[in-house]
Design a protein that fits this description.
22% strand, alpha+beta, Alpha-Beta Plaits, 5 strands, 2 helices, globular
Amino acid sequence: MVLDDAGILRSCSVQGHAGAGCKGSDIVCAAVSVLTRTIVRVLSGRKGIYIRGSIPGEGNFLLEADYSEEGKEFLAAAGAFLSEGLTSVAGEFPDNCKVNIERRI
C-alpha cells in the first residue's frame, strides 16, 4: 500500500495466495478479497476520486487512486479503513498475510 505525503491512499496491490486453507475456503484470502473488493466499490463513482485497477492474474490485484480536493477527505478515510483492515488480518495471520505501507513524498 502506498500513501502520499498527506497520508492518503495512492495505490494498493495484493499478490499471491494466503495458503491458510484450501482454495475456496481460505479465511485469509476471503478477508483480503472482501476488503479490496469493497474499497473498489466504495470508491467507484465517488466525486473527486479517480481509480484505476487491474487483476493481472489469479491472486493478484492492483488499485491506483488520484483525487481532487473534493475527494481528499473521503479517500483518506477509505484508505485508513483499508489499511486498518489489512493490518488486522496480517496481525491475526502473520504467516499468511504481510502488509507493507510505504509513504511517498
